[in-house]
Task: structure prediction
Amino acid sequence: MLDAGGEVTSHYPELRLLGRALGAVAVVLEGEVVALGPDGQPDGGSLARRAEARSDAALRRLAEHSPVTFFAADVVWLEGHGTAALPHRERRTLLDQLQLAGPAWQTVPDHPGDGSALLEAVRTQGLAGVVARRIDGGYEPGSLRLIPAGPTPGGPSGVLAAGS
Result:
Protein backbone atom coordinates (compact mmCIF):
# COMPACT_ATOMS: atom_id res chain seq x y z
CA MET A 1 0.00 0.00 0.00
CA LEU A 2 1.16 3.49 -0.85
CA ASP A 3 0.09 6.95 0.18
CA ALA A 4 1.50 10.37 -0.69
CA GLY A 5 4.35 9.75 1.76
CA GLY A 6 5.33 6.32 0.43
CA GLU A 7 4.85 2.69 1.47
CA VAL A 8 2.49 2.20 4.45
CA THR A 9 1.52 -1.49 4.37
CA SER A 10 3.22 -2.15 7.70
CA HIS A 11 0.85 0.28 9.45
CA TYR A 12 -2.19 -1.79 8.48
CA PRO A 13 -1.42 -5.49 9.01
CA GLU A 14 -5.11 -6.41 8.76
CA LEU A 15 -5.04 -5.34 5.10
CA ARG A 16 -2.25 -7.72 4.09
CA LEU A 17 -4.81 -10.46 3.53
CA LEU A 18 -6.41 -8.45 0.71
CA GLY A 19 -3.64 -9.64 -1.62
CA ARG A 20 -4.39 -13.24 -0.72
CA ALA A 21 -8.12 -12.64 -1.26
CA LEU A 22 -7.43 -11.28 -4.75
CA GLY A 23 -5.51 -14.46 -5.57
CA ALA A 24 -3.82 -14.34 -8.95
CA VAL A 25 -5.58 -11.14 -10.03
CA ALA A 26 -2.98 -8.44 -10.73
CA VAL A 27 -4.63 -5.12 -9.90
CA VAL A 28 -3.87 -1.60 -8.69
CA LEU A 29 -6.71 -0.06 -6.71
CA GLU A 30 -7.37 3.47 -5.53
CA GLY A 31 -9.25 3.93 -2.29
CA GLU A 32 -9.25 5.14 1.28
CA VAL A 33 -8.15 3.52 4.51
CA VAL A 34 -10.65 4.43 7.25
CA ALA A 35 -10.57 3.77 10.98
CA LEU A 36 -14.02 3.49 12.51
CA GLY A 37 -14.72 4.59 16.05
CA PRO A 38 -16.86 2.72 18.60
CA ASP A 39 -19.95 4.41 17.13
CA GLY A 40 -19.21 3.00 13.66
CA GLN A 41 -18.37 6.44 12.27
CA PRO A 42 -14.99 7.30 10.71
CA ASP A 43 -12.45 8.34 13.36
CA GLY A 44 -9.61 10.47 12.00
CA GLY A 45 -7.78 10.43 15.34
CA SER A 46 -7.52 6.64 15.37
CA LEU A 47 -6.25 6.65 11.81
CA ALA A 48 -3.62 9.26 12.66
CA ARG A 49 -2.41 7.16 15.62
CA ARG A 50 -2.10 4.16 13.29
CA ALA A 51 -0.06 6.19 10.80
CA GLU A 52 2.28 7.47 13.52
CA ALA A 53 2.98 4.11 15.22
CA ARG A 54 6.46 2.72 14.59
CA SER A 55 7.01 -0.44 16.66
CA ASP A 56 5.56 -3.81 15.67
CA ALA A 57 4.04 -4.18 19.14
CA ALA A 58 2.27 -0.81 18.89
CA LEU A 59 1.01 -1.64 15.38
CA ARG A 60 -0.40 -4.99 16.54
CA ARG A 61 -2.07 -3.37 19.56
CA LEU A 62 -3.59 -0.60 17.45
CA ALA A 63 -4.75 -3.09 14.80
CA GLU A 64 -6.64 -4.94 17.53
CA HIS A 65 -8.17 -1.88 19.20
CA SER A 66 -8.55 0.47 16.21
CA PRO A 67 -8.99 -1.69 13.12
CA VAL A 68 -9.11 -0.09 9.70
CA THR A 69 -11.09 -0.84 6.56
CA PHE A 70 -9.88 -0.24 3.02
CA PHE A 71 -12.66 1.19 0.84
CA ALA A 72 -11.76 0.50 -2.81
CA ALA A 73 -13.00 3.28 -5.07
CA ASP A 74 -11.39 2.68 -8.45
CA VAL A 75 -9.37 0.27 -10.60
CA VAL A 76 -6.24 1.95 -11.98
CA TRP A 77 -4.63 -1.09 -13.60
CA LEU A 78 -5.90 -4.63 -14.15
CA GLU A 79 -4.20 -7.77 -15.47
CA GLY A 80 -1.46 -5.96 -17.38
CA HIS A 81 -3.65 -3.18 -18.76
CA GLY A 82 -4.02 0.42 -17.67
CA THR A 83 -7.62 1.44 -17.16
CA ALA A 84 -7.09 5.22 -16.91
CA ALA A 85 -8.57 5.97 -20.33
CA LEU A 86 -11.80 4.10 -19.58
CA PRO A 87 -14.77 6.10 -18.32
CA HIS A 88 -15.44 5.73 -14.59
CA ARG A 89 -18.62 3.69 -15.20
CA GLU A 90 -16.52 1.01 -16.99
CA ARG A 91 -13.85 1.05 -14.29
CA ARG A 92 -16.63 0.75 -11.71
CA THR A 93 -17.91 -2.38 -13.48
CA LEU A 94 -14.38 -3.85 -13.29
CA LEU A 95 -14.20 -2.95 -9.58
CA ASP A 96 -17.57 -4.58 -8.87
CA GLN A 97 -16.47 -7.74 -10.71
CA LEU A 98 -13.59 -8.11 -8.22
CA GLN A 99 -16.24 -8.69 -5.50
CA LEU A 100 -14.15 -7.06 -2.79
CA ALA A 101 -15.80 -7.94 0.50
CA GLY A 102 -13.59 -9.04 3.34
CA PRO A 103 -12.99 -8.56 7.03
CA ALA A 104 -11.07 -5.30 6.43
CA TRP A 105 -11.92 -4.26 2.87
CA GLN A 106 -14.90 -3.50 0.70
CA THR A 107 -15.93 -1.57 -2.38
CA VAL A 108 -17.34 1.89 -1.69
CA PRO A 109 -21.04 2.29 -2.36
CA ASP A 110 -21.77 3.80 -5.75
CA HIS A 111 -24.59 6.34 -5.98
CA PRO A 112 -24.72 7.85 -9.47
CA GLY A 113 -27.44 10.39 -9.96
CA ASP A 114 -28.93 12.96 -7.60
CA GLY A 115 -25.90 14.41 -5.86
CA SER A 116 -27.97 16.91 -3.86
CA ALA A 117 -30.02 14.17 -2.18
CA LEU A 118 -26.88 12.17 -1.45
CA LEU A 119 -25.15 15.21 0.05
CA GLU A 120 -28.16 15.81 2.32
CA ALA A 121 -28.11 12.18 3.47
CA VAL A 122 -24.39 12.49 4.23
CA ARG A 123 -25.05 15.66 6.25
CA THR A 124 -27.72 13.82 8.24
CA GLN A 125 -25.20 11.10 9.11
CA GLY A 126 -22.64 13.68 10.26
CA LEU A 127 -20.04 12.74 7.65
CA ALA A 128 -17.60 15.31 6.25
CA GLY A 129 -18.83 15.11 2.66
CA VAL A 130 -19.11 13.15 -0.56
CA VAL A 131 -16.14 12.08 -2.65
CA ALA A 132 -17.18 12.40 -6.27
CA ARG A 133 -15.80 11.65 -9.71
CA ARG A 134 -17.39 12.27 -13.11
CA ILE A 135 -18.98 9.01 -14.25
CA ASP A 136 -17.99 9.58 -17.90
CA GLY A 137 -14.42 10.74 -17.11
CA GLY A 138 -11.14 8.88 -17.37
CA TYR A 139 -8.91 8.28 -14.37
CA GLU A 140 -6.59 11.05 -13.21
CA PRO A 141 -4.56 10.58 -10.02
CA GLY A 142 -5.98 12.80 -7.31
CA SER A 143 -9.14 13.53 -9.31
CA LEU A 144 -11.45 12.46 -6.51
CA ARG A 145 -12.87 15.60 -4.97
CA LEU A 146 -14.49 16.11 -1.61
CA ILE A 147 -17.74 18.03 -1.70
CA PRO A 148 -18.09 19.24 1.91
CA ALA A 149 -21.35 18.48 3.67
CA GLY A 150 -20.72 21.32 6.11
CA PRO A 151 -19.23 21.47 9.58
CA THR A 152 -19.33 18.26 11.57
CA PRO A 153 -18.88 17.89 15.33
CA GLY A 154 -15.18 17.48 16.02
CA GLY A 155 -14.18 18.33 12.45
CA PRO A 156 -14.08 16.13 9.34
CA SER A 157 -14.65 12.51 10.21
CA GLY A 158 -15.39 10.61 7.03
CA VAL A 159 -16.64 10.59 3.49
CA LEU A 160 -18.85 8.59 1.18
CA ALA A 161 -17.72 7.98 -2.40
CA ALA A 162 -20.07 8.41 -5.32
CA GLY A 163 -20.13 8.77 -9.09
CA SER A 164 -21.64 11.91 -10.59
